[in-house]
Amino acid sequence: MKELLRTTDPVRLSWLLALLADAGIEGIVLDTHTSILEGSIGAIPRRLMVADEDHAAACRLLRDAGEELGA
């Protein structure tokens, strides 16, 4: 698994997952439970991950959609 990005924005995360799914790429969100435990302060970002073999295509897709990738 490789990380695409980290975000504390659940709406952005949902949109990115839908974008990946439309392209046939499975995205997995890590740190969801940790983020929920810390409450609503947004201190712990959630990580959007994809399979190693999908990483390059996912990066292109998100960049084409105007997303800046930090990882």
UniProtKB/TrEMBL annotation:
Gene3D superfamilies assigned: UreE, C-terminal domain
- Domain DUF2007: from-to ranges: 1-65
Q: Which Pfam families match?
A: DUF2007
Output the InterPro entries linked to this UniProt entry. Answer: DUF2007, N-reg_PII-like_a/b
- Tell me the SUPFAM superfamilies matching this sequence: GlnB-like
Output this protein's name: DUF2007 domain-containing protein
